[in-house]
Write a structure and sequence with these properties.
Elements lengths: L6 E5 L9 H15 L3 E6 L12 E4 L2 E4 L2 E7 L4 H10 L3 E4 L4 H12 L4 E4 L17 H12 L4 E4 L2 H9 L6 E3 L16 H6 L8 E5 L8 H13 L5 E5 L5 H7 L4 E4 L3 H9 L3 E4 L8 H8 L4 E4 L4 H4 L6 E4 L4 H13 L1 H15 L4 H26 L1
Parallel strand pairs: 1-2, 1-6, 2-3, 6-7, 7-8, 8-9, 10-11, 10-13, 11-12, 13-14, 14-15
Antiparallel strand pairs: 4-5
Length: about 400
């Protein structure tokens, strides 16, 4: 069996209606699989005006807007029409990418059809509640997710550090790595544009600390702003550039009023914005990989990040950046201060990160997922023969 023989039914809670690192990775995967001759059918909530055009054939599943976060939608059911479409497509493997109700129904359907199931894990969903004063729910959510993941034949995680967390949580014992790639045509040091930076009112000779990501509290906006406050108290020369948008933008703007907010950027404009920073600061602990961290490294920036899943697999402490205990404001400030006052250190660690980014090729990375599909199909067939 070859990649071209694959027929994959992919279930995603958000395939293209809001842009994020997870669904961009899924779209890249589908594009690669289609280029190799595989057949893919995607089942996901849809909206009238999605953030970007979907790669592949997308089937809409019934959904509703999430209360208080209406930009996101909850998949509700594997409706009769969706089931008919799924049966007509006749997949030989099912891939789920979010632990929602429809994914659970898809797993149940796959088991009845005697099909293997792969689950790709993109974020630490259970940690989100920490940012909304509901951390007491985390053990319940973890157990709820475990019940689903243990029904899957295997998981793929974007980093070894995250895979280890999943093993410790007893989510599954067959876990492969589906890393992430970086488009070096977009993200590279040559994209640096001081004229663009000056257009935002930023000085050439004062270091720029950058933030890149969706502006939601679970990205560590509170830690970021508290750390910037600490730098101000220390009289450390710095400027702040924020790339991205989201429901917490007004709150973030009020907390760091001197920062420049460049809004949502994409493609070459995004590469230019990242390369025009001097240091990248990522205090989030929710990412399973950290696409933004890799993109910043590819642009030659030193990275100050939380010592958490994702960043630990990318950043080498005191070589390409600093890994800091999550929430340790003074330690974050110490690390950023060192980069702000020492241009040679910035250049040395930025160059090390840029060299490291060359290891991440999208085609090779996506082929590992195709290889995992093929392995699971072979194993499933072998078990069926043994059972007979």
């Amino acid at each position: 069996m070859h990649t071209s023989d694959l027929r994959i039914a992919l279930f995603s809670g958000n395939y293209n209606y809001v842009r994020d690192g997870a669904n961009q990775a899924l779209n890249r995967l589908v594009g690669y699989l289609l280029s190799q001759g595989a057949s893919v059918r995607i089942y996901s909530p849809t909206v009238e005006n999605p953030a970007f055009e979907a790669t592949g054939d997308l089937v809409s599943v019934p959904s509703m807007a999430i209360p208080f976060r209406p930009e996101y939608r909850i998949p509700l059911s594997l409706s009769r029409s969706v089931r008919r479409d799924l049966e007509a497509f006749n997949p030989n493997i099912v891939h789920i990418a979010s632990p929602d109700r429809v994914s659970r129904k898809a797993v149940k359907w796959a088991k009845k059809q005697n099909l293997p199931v792969l689950c790709s894990v993109h974020t630490r969903f259970e940690t989100y509640f920490r940012y909304y004063n509901m951390s007491f729910i985390e053990p319940v959510v973890e157990a709820w997710i475990r019940r689903l993941y243990r029904k899957c034949d295997a998981l793929v995680a974007p980093s070894e550090s995250f895979a280890q967390v999943l093993r410790q949580q007893r989510m599954n014992y067959d876990i492969d790595i589906w890393s992430r790639g970086v488009d070096r045509g977009i993200f590279n040091p040559g994209r640096r544009d001081m004229e663009w930076r000056r257009g935002l009112g930023m000085s050439d000779d004062i270091p720029v600390i950058g933030f890149l990501g969706r502006l939601v509290m679970e990205k560590g906006l509170d830690v970021f702003s508290d750390t910037i406050d600490q730098l101000k108290r220390r009289n450390v020369p710095h400027q702040v550039l924020v790339i991205g948008d989201g429901p917490a933008r007004a709150w973030f703007e009020s907390r760091i009023p001197d920062a420049k907010f460049a809004g949502f950027q994409v493609g070459a404009d995004l590469g230019r914005a990242v390369a025009s920073m001097d240091v990248f600061f990522n205090p989030s602990v929710t990412e399973a990989f950290g696409n933004v961290t890799l993109e910043s490294m590819a642009c030659g920036l030193p990275v100050v990040a939380a010592k958490a899943t994702g960043s630990q697999s990318l950043v080498e402490d005191k070589v390409s950046g600093r890994l800091i205990t999550p929430g340790a404001i003074n330690q974050y400030a110490d690390a950023l201060q060192a980069y702000c006052v020492n241009a040679d250190l910035r250049a040395e660690h930025g160059s090390a990160g840029e060299r490291r980014s060359h290891d991440y090729s999208w085609d090779a990375i996506n082929q590992t997922v195709a290889d995992t599909y093929l392995r699971l199909i072979r194993q499933h067939a072998a078990r069926a023969i043994a059972a007979r």
